[in-house]
């Protein structure tokens, strides 16, 4: 990146790791971000976040924070609230938007209220599985409300599979819901500084785009250009920004969609701290826009300066 004034950022702490189920992904994201900052001559250091994070931030001098934490504790408003209390500017969405986006159940309620298309959904309890199937069908995605990276998620096609899927999700979260399966193409759109980056179409031989397909498998296919017509891609871009802003999100993030056979888009969720690994989608979309990984990292960090 040209014209990087490393002095304007001061000392930057990259917060990564943490204790969520997405710890390993976060360690990879944080290290990649840290390396990019160092390559740009920025004074950066890493903190693997644990229960002593307050003491460590008090001990270290940090002028701003780059949040690379995924999942509960790092993506749900808690670390954002701490940084605000300590008056340390940070990357990404604020406390309330982070909390809302991390809660997939509340996110869908907001989408519904805002008129943003999203698949039919119902809360799941051990005693209401039959009624949920009767209302929205047997083809369902079962999800814990507060996990990311598809952790605890299952796709079911019959009532007989639902009990196991519910128990699997309930291991990770007391709040579980079922979402009607949309059969069709899957897309994801990165949002950077209020603008949608080129959409990516995801193709996998797995039942769905699960944790393995996201971070481990080498046969997942990422199509960018995504194959949509110009008008459909513009429509998807507009919907991405609307969904992102409906939760009050800011800075950067990613919005996930399904499309049905008629070309209708259904909004699934918003990720406020997406992965930044070699398998990650936001760097891929940025590259299609002409931004290198280092460009992307510095662009995100610059938001902490302009926000002051």
What percent of residues adopt helix (DSSP H or I)?
Answer: 25-40%
* Model regions low in confidence, pLDDT < 50 over at least 5 residues: none
Order of helices and strands: EHEHEHHHEHEEHEEEEHEHEEHH
What is the 3D form? Answer: globular
Count of runs of 4 or more consecutive helical residues: 11
Give the total of beta strands: 13
Query: What's the average pLDDT?
Result: 91
How much of the polypeptide forms β-strand, as a percent range?
Answer: 15-25%
Helix- and strand-based class? Answer: alpha+beta
Largest sheet: 6 strands, antiparallel
Radius of gyration: 19 Å
Distance between the termini: 23 Å
Topology, please?
Elements: E1 11-16, H1 23-39, E2 43-48, H2 53-59, E3 64-67, H3 78-85, H4 95-102, H5 104-114, E4 121-124, H6 129-136, E5 140-144, E6 154-156, H7 162-170, E7 176-180, E8 186-192, E9 195-196, E10 200-203, H8 211-215, E11 221-223, H9 230-246, E12 252-259, E13 265-271, H10 281-288, H11 293-306
Parallel strand pairs: 1-2, 1-3
Antiparallel strand pairs: 4-7, 5-6, 5-7, 8-9, 8-10, 8-12, 10-11, 12-13
Helix pairs in contact: 1-11
